[in-house]
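Hi R.,

As promised on Friday, here is the backbone we talked about, encoded as structure tokens. Could you run it through your design pipeline when you get a chance and send me back a sequence?
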């Protein structure tokens, strides 16, 4: 082994393994075209290595589960050797790089292979063809010993140096403590210092004379009865105390252990045993029954990621026709069917409403992906029936993630027999901005139930097509007040300016004087948003004009006109509002003062 200075850093020194024969030293590998590299094969290798190391920790060497994982690891190495004879890996703190491409990453240090090598100073590894033979289990044993090491001596560099593996080479750095001074040429050797001076510096007292050293230790004091006295000074606490670095290391181990997700470890162990090809049928059925008990537990605790992992692994095992006993396979199928049943969907939605399942819908969306298509209808219906807006929005976000890419299948729910399901599907179409569904939505806007029409109005905000806007403009004359108000608001939001003339006709109609205040405000505001400065003369006339006999528009109409003028930028609109500052009607004066006192108004 040779020691060479690091790149200009006095506190880091490179240690290069030169125990090999000259022809075995790893040479620099030329860069290749990334598109031609077998990256997936190398990534599978490290994924298999991680699983094999985990099974090495859990099972005896003769256990069939461990032997199967070991065989998979050997096969992974052989697949790599089909295209090359060695594999040179660059080690970083949280990942492995090969040919500049990332082939392994793990953020958590406790389970990271990359950090296992990095923390002991190893910065590159070279695997050679032949490692998959007798040396493979030796390599796994080394990794296990280091992962569970309790002493500083059990580091990877030391163990690999001692074993001197034929098919594995490495490069490492020796990290000296920060602030360590390296003795330069001409500096006195510490070995030449006077022993008395050293003792004096360590003990903080005068150094013993040669005569005192020759006399040996003083005899122990005894009490009058001849019993030796135990004194606090006889104990050296430094022998049992941890230094700062050791204490930090133990604290880090404790924190990592406390954060370790035991539930995921349990799931991994159960699925390892379930996939064991030599497992007894009774054992497989027992494992599936255990999974049946775990799923509702995870859901009730809000552990959605664990529930998703359970359902995903179980579905994967069934889809690839793993060697499961008929009873275990039937039981697993029933579990997936029950999760997608209307009763399970109802309980899931209820848990969201009660707050047992919280969040922004991200994890919930992943969980809902494991529902079967037949469950989408009950899910849409239950979501529409929720009374809490936050819970309803969470489920809608999650359902949108479930429906992404499934728009064509979702269209079928637009003709469902239950209006609540149709309304939920319509809102999903709006959220997904699925334009091919616009003709169907227009038909539902004209013919659907009030619940469905309300959902179409909500979707129309996200689907601002000309056809939808024209349908909304026709809705302004609808007998239903709520539909007229909703159509006016959406038209204003999507800025469909051709509807300004229709809104002007409505506002100029005598029947508008009989409408309630909410409808008047909605139509006036929509007209102001669509007409802009062109609408100022019409609105100013309603606000300030007097007839031949001095009559004016009703106070509510004039107040709404003032509020509409306040939504239009421009001096002409402000002058028209200012003209009504001293109006005798309190409702008009209040609206005018509200406009003039807001930022940007004449008094603002």
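Update: got your reply. Pasting your designed sequence below so it's all in one thread:
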């Amino acid at each position: 082994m040779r020691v060479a200075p690091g790149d200009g850093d006095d506190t880091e020194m490179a240690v290069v393994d030169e125990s090999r024969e000259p022809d075995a030293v790893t040479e620099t590998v030329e860069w290749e075209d990334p598109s031609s590299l077998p990256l997936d094969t190398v990534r599978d290798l490290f994924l298999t290595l991680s699983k094999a190391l985990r099974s090495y920790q859990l099972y005896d060497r003769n256990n069939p589960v461990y032997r199967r994982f070991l065989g998979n690891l050997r096969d992974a190495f052989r697949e790599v050797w089909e295209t090359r004879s060695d594999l040179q890996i660059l080690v970083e703190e949280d990942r492995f790089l090969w040919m500049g491409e990332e082939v392994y990453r793990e953020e958590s240090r406790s389970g990271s292979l990359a950090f296992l090598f990095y923390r002991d100073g190893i910065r590159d590894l070279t695997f050679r063809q032949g490692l998959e033979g007798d040396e493979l289990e030796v390599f796994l044993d080394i990794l296990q010993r280091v992962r569970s090491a309790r002493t500083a001596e059990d580091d990877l560099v030391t163990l690999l140096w001692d074993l001197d593996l034929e098919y594995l080479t490495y490069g490492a750095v020796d990290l000296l403590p920060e602030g360590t001074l390296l003795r330069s040429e001409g500096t006195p050797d510490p070995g030449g210092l006077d022993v008395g001076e050293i003792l004096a510096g360590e003990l903080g007292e005068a150094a013993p004379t040669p005569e005192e050293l020759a006399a040996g230790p003083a005899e122990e004091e005894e009490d009058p009865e001849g019993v030796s006295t135990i004194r606090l000074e006889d104990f050296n606490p430094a022998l049992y105390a941890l230094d700062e670095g050791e204490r930090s290391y133990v604290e880090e181990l404790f924190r990592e252990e406390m954060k370790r997700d035991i539930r995921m470890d349990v799931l991994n162990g159960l699925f390892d045993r379930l996939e064991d090809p030599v497992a007894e049928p009774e054992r497989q059925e027992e494992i599936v029954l255990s999974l049946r008990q775990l799923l509702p537990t995870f859901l009730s605790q809000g552990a959605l990621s664990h529930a998703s992992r359970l359902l995903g692994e179980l579905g994967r095992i069934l889809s690839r026709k793993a060697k499961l006993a008929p009873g275990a396979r039937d039981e697993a199928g029933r579990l997936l069917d029950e999760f997608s049943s209307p009763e399970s969907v109802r309980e899931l939605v209820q848990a969201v409403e009660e707050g047992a399942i919280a969040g922004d819908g991200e994890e919930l969306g992943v969980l809902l992906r494991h529902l079967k298509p037949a469950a989408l209808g009950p899910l849409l219906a239950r979501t529409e029936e929720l009374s809490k807006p936050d819970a309803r929005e969470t489920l809608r976000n999650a359902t949108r993630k479930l429906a992404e890419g499934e728009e064509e299948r979702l269209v079928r729910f637009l003709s469902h027999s239950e209006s609540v399901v149709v309304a939920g599907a319509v809102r999903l179409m709006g959220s997904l901005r699925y334009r091919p569904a616009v003709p169907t939505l227009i038909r539902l806007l004209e013919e659907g139930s009030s619940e469905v029409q309300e959902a179409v109005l909500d979707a129309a905000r996200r689907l601002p097509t000309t056809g939808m806007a024209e349908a909304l403009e026709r809705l302004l004359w609808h007998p239903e007040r709520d539909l007229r108000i909703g159509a006016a608001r959406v038209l204003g939001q999507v800025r469909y300016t051709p509807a300004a003339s229709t809104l002007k006709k409505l506002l100029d109609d005598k029947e508008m004087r009989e409408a309630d205040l909410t409808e008047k405000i909605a139509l006036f505001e929509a007209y102001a948003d669509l007409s802009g400065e062109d609408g100022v003369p019409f609105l100013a006339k309603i606000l300030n004009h007097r007839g031949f006999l001095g009559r004016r528009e009703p106070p509510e109409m004039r107040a709404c006109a003032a509020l509409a003028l306040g939504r239009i930028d421009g001096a002409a609109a402000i002058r028209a509002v200012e003209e009504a500052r001293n109006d005798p009607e309190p409702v008009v004066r209040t609206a005018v003062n509200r406009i003039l006192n807001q930022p940007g108004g004449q008094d603002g």
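One thing I noticed while checking it: The two ends are 80 Å apart (CA to CA).

Thanks again,
M.
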